[in-house]
Automatic annotation (TrEMBL):
Chief subcellular location: cytoplasm
CDD domains tied to this protein: DHQS
Cofactor binding, per record: Binds 1 divalent metal cation per subunit. Can use either Co(2+) or Zn(2+).
Domain 3-dehydroquinate synthase C-terminal: from-to ranges: 183-329
Cofactor or coenzyme needed: Co(2+); Zn(2+); NAD(+)
Name of this chain's protein: 3-dehydroquinate synthase
Organism encoding this protein: Desertifilum tharense IPPAS B-1220
Length: 365
């Protein structure tokens, strides 16, 4: 099964290539783009041990010279200090503007590599090779790159599109179960915000919590339709002037939960799941969508064995205060993405602090 999705952007269109075995085809696919021959492959130690040999062999066979740089694993290392070390490696290997940084890893590796590529020599080529479900369907597409500030997630960054996204579903066989579930949170998100048919397919699957319980055809459908949803939205709004904000469904409260737990206790997908439940409950309280739809959303999140409650030790005032530093604040108002129906959401700045605190309290019971 093979899919190719075009991200149609006026000045930086690119392809998302999805097929089992694509990792071995990385070199020839990059060679077709006529990029410079120098590659800096960026990863972490665990991913490089598993997949580095295949990626490097494919690149070298296609005529590329490959150097590597490793980040420590984990969101807490997504900092400017880590980027500085990558710059040091880029300087050591004398990367030029025609050179390419290749991100082999999950969303953290992709975000940091993209930010480094955007800023080194004012921009070098960038290719995404995501190895987690979450990165495949979300982080690798759309050109959002960046690092965290101690007081907020992804506050430092740039829009910088890759030249190519190479997805090999085979690598998911070694993905830890918790990371697979984290990716399913974003899949469910696409169903809620854009693709009601995808959501129905998720509902029809007996289990969503482990890869081995998914029909192979469903996995290909999940990856392809999620990528298509992201490509559709980004193609209409590259830099989040309007529509693209809907991709942040579940992320407003989710980012607050992530940052207040130090990026250690709750991973990104788990935080998004909590944020989607909260956004759905806010929409119920405001009369925007039905309790039945909220129950359907909750059912899918539970089927993926994702959390649905806010950790009991978190201070609710701290969550509300953290929202004020979110990137989606406009004219001092926090903008929430709220669901109206399965497949349809709106952007609203009309969530009162009282309603917010009420919903947060319900979710911490």
């Amino acid at each position: 099964m093979e899919s190719a999705i075009r991200v149609n952007l006026p000045e930086s269109a690119y392809e998302i290539a999805i097929a089992p075995g694509n990792l071995e085809r990385l070199g020839p696919m990059m060679a077709q783009l006529k990029l410079g021959k120098q590659v800096l492959l960026v990863s972490n130690a665990a991913i490089l041990r598993r997949y580095g040999e295949s990626a490097i062999a494919s690149l070298e066979a296609a005529g590329f010279t490959v150097a590597t740089h490793l980040f420590p694993p984990g969101e807490r290392y997504k900092t400017l200090a880590s980027i500085q070390k990558l710059y040091d490696t880029a300087l050591e290997h004398r990367l030029e503007r025609s050179s390419t940084m290749v991100a082999l890893g999950g969303g953290v590796v992709g975000d940091m590599t993209g930010f480094a590529a955007a800023t080194w020599l004012r921009g070098v080529n960038f290719v995404q090779v995501p190895t987690s479900l979450l990165a495949m369907i979300d982080a690798s597409i759309g050109g959002k790159t960046g690092v965290n500030h101690p007081r907020g997630k992804n506050l430092i960054g740039a829009f910088y599109q890759p030249k190519l996204v190479v997805i090999d579903p085979n690598v998911l066989q070694t993905l830890p179960t918790r990371e697979f579930r984290a990716g399913m949170a974003e899949v469910i998100k696409y169903g809620i915000i854009w693709d009601a048919d995808l959501f129905s397919k998720l509902e029809a699957s007996p289990r969503l919590d482990q890869l081995r319980y998914l029909d192979p055809g469903l996995l290909q459908t999940i990856i392809t339709r999620s990528c298509q949803a992201k490509a559709d939205v980004v193609g209409q709004d590259e830099k989040e002037a309007g529509l693209r904000a809907i991709l942040n469904y579940g992320h407003t409260i989710g980012h607050a939960v992530e940052s207040l737990t130090g990026y250690r206790l709750v991973n990104h997908g788990e935080a998004v799941a909590i944020g989607m439940v909260a956004a759905g409950q806010l929409a119920v309280e405001m009369g925007l969508w039905s309790a039945e739809c909220q129950a359907r959303q909750l059912g899918s999140i539970q089927k993926a064995n994702l959390p649905t409650q806010i950790p009991s030790f978190l201070d609710l005032d701290a969550i509300a205060d953290t929202l004020s530093t979110d990137k989606k604040v406009q004219a001092g108002q926090v903008r929430f993405i709220l669901p109206k129906d399965i497949g349809e959401v709106i952007i609203s700045d009309r969530v009162s602090r009282d309603t917010l605190k009420q919903v947060l309290a319900q979710m911490q019971a």
